[in-house]
Design a protein that fits this description.
Elements lengths: L1 E5 L6 H12 L3 E3 H11 L2 H11 L6 H12 L8 E4 L5 H12 L7 E6 L2 H14 L7 H24 L3 E5 L4 H12 L4
Length: 189
């Protein structure tokens, strides 16, 4: 199964990605992990990405797309993958589609974890306090979430029009959310 996982910060994507990828027997591919691996290995793409990251800028689509293309071409992805953090732009949606089409593959689902905004803000404020991140104030967190929703609305609309979008309530216990995802994706256990 080839799945893209989307959801705002604090929705539990990382936890659910790990669990669901394990159930599916496919790799959990996080763009953050791809960036870190390329930078650590000193690959040409990693060196280029590091320049932008060190300057506090977004890594351009071209670099991100090349890293994702390389990762998806590896043997462990032939049976499927769970992609977390990509695509983030409409252009990346097109690029991912082209990557998969070139090997006669396609996405099976785009899973969006939905959450109550106030609940997520509360989670993130608590996480920031636990991690000593004093710059993560409620106002900053709310703005970050607004930006997330503004940026992903076109993507979710596009995937919904393609019949790929599956929305799952991301609130509740880890087990409850996992059970909802399993049911939504039709995963047999």
């Amino acid at each position: 199964m080839r799945v893209v996982l989307m959801g705002p910060p604090g929705a539990g994507k990382g936890t659910q990605a790990f669990l669901i990828a394990g159930m599916l027997g496919v790799p959990h591919i996080s763009t953050g992990d791809i960036f870190r691996a390329n930078v650590t290995q000193g690959s040409p793409l990693g060196i280029e990405a590091k320049r932008y990251m060190d300057a506090g800028e977004y890594v351009p689509d071209g670099v991100t797309n090349a890293m994702v293309r390389d990762r998806l071409s590896r043997d462990d992805c032939h049976a499927g993958f769970l992609l977390d953090g990509y695509p983030r732009t409409v252009e990346q949606v097109g690029e991912l589609s082209a990557m998969l089409s070139s090997s006669a593959e396609r996405l099976d689902h785009v899973l969006e974890l939905t959450v109550d905004l106030d609940e997520v803000v509360s989670r993130l404020v608590m996480r920031a306090a636990e991690q000593g991140r004093s710059d993560d104030t409620e106002d900053v967190i709310r703005r970050r979430l607004e930006v997330y929703f503004e940026q992903t609305a076109p993507l979710t609309a596009l995937y919904e029009a393609q019949g790929l979008l599956v929305r799952v309530d991301g609130l509740g216990t880890i087990a409850d959310v996992t059970a909802r995802i399993v049911a939504a994706l039709g995963i047999e256990q």
